[in-house]
Each structure stands twice: as C-alpha cells, then as structure tokens.
Amino acid sequence: MLVALLAMDVDLLAPPPDRTGQGRAKVREGVAYVRRRPDIILIMVIAFMHGTFGMNFQITNALMATEIYGKGVEEYGITGSVMAIGSLGGALLAARRDRPRWRLLLGSLAAFAVMTFFTATAPTFLLYTVLLVPTGLTALTVMVSANAMVQLSVDQAVRGRVMALYMAVFFGGTPLGSPLIGWIGEHWGARWTLLIGTIACGLTAVAATIYVMRHDNLRLRLRASWLRPLALERGTLTEPLPEKVI
User: Fold this and answer.
1) In this predicted structure, what is the pLDDT of residue 25?
2) Which class would CATH give 30-215?
3) How much is the pTM?
C-alpha cells in the first residue's frame, strides 16, 4: 500500500470545488446525486444482491464440506485456499482493464450464477473444490467491475460520498444475508445455501440486462457458428456477423 501511494501521480489529483454546506447537507447532496443516476442505482442493486446472497462462502463452504461431503476442518480450509486462487486470477485480470463495461459486469454476474449452480450440485468434494476456482474468479470480477464502474463514472466532487453509499449497500447486505443463509441451510439443506445465490444473482443478471438493453440501446446477439454470446455492444457489432444470427 505504501508503494502504491508513493507511485501515484499527485499532479492528477485535484481538490473538489469548495461547496457550501457541511455534514448532513453534503450527505444529502450525495444521495440526491445518486438518485439522478439510474446507472449507479442499478450497479448498487447488483452489488447488494451479489453481496447479500452470493458472497457467503464462509457459511456455504463449511456446510457443504461437513454436511454434504462428510469432511472435516482441514478440507474446509482447503476450500477457502482453492477459492482464493480464483479470486487472485480475477484480480490479475481486472488489473489489465482500463475501464470495465456493462457487458463485463452483467456477463460475470451471470457466469457467477452458473458457477454457484454447478458447485451446489457437485456430486463429489473434489469436483466441488475444483469448481470453486472459477466461482472465485467470477465473484471477484463482479465486485471489481461494479466498484470501478461507480468510481469512474461519477463526478469527482461527490465521488467519496457516492462510494460511501456504495460500500454501505454492498457490505450492509451481509448482516441481512448471513442469518438468512444460515436459516436456509438449517431448514432446506446445505446445497440451498448456494442455490439461493444462483437464483438471486441469476434473476438480477437477467433483469439488469433487459434494463440496460432497453435504456442504453444495447443489443445481445448470439453467433450461430460458435454457439456463444457475442457480448453486449452499443449499436452494431464490432465484428462481421456469420451467415445467421440468433
């Protein structure tokens, strides 16, 4: 952290303009700014759903390791270490991107929902552990993308207040989500602690994609020859289409 601070170019830092009002007035100004930005509100909704229902792996890994696969403390520790490999990979990939786009955020959220489904239904502990790598990668990609999109898209005069709201929304869901996940694990079974994240994040990804496509002039196309999504592009596609588009 000290090295990163010393490496910063201070010439690029500019103090915000002096504004009247202190304390609560500035907080209200930040809230008012967010209310005028539906894109930031949508990102905060994604962050809330992801943090509340998807990022509870301290609970889900413990329940899956002990109740589903009959493992002990050592195996539970392995799940956290393996998942950290995916998270590190996501962090390294995030460092290569100058500015994340909606297609990355929505795509990674959808991929995270898919991966949590596969981990929840994994028949063996070995397969479950292996699947934690891409699960951790997609989870961190969602977090970093949402964070960066908020920071890079707001007025620097209110960036601190907006980020405070964003972090409150993201981490504020944990006290709500953890007891709920625990209750689901107790009454519905350990696999449902992951499946509830699949449902919540999957529905959020679908709803957010539809909203962005309608309000931001984005289109989702599928290449028939590759049978895979070509990602969201503004207006037209960046590459020539094959003979058939689905």
Assistant:
1) 72
2) mainly alpha
3) 0.79
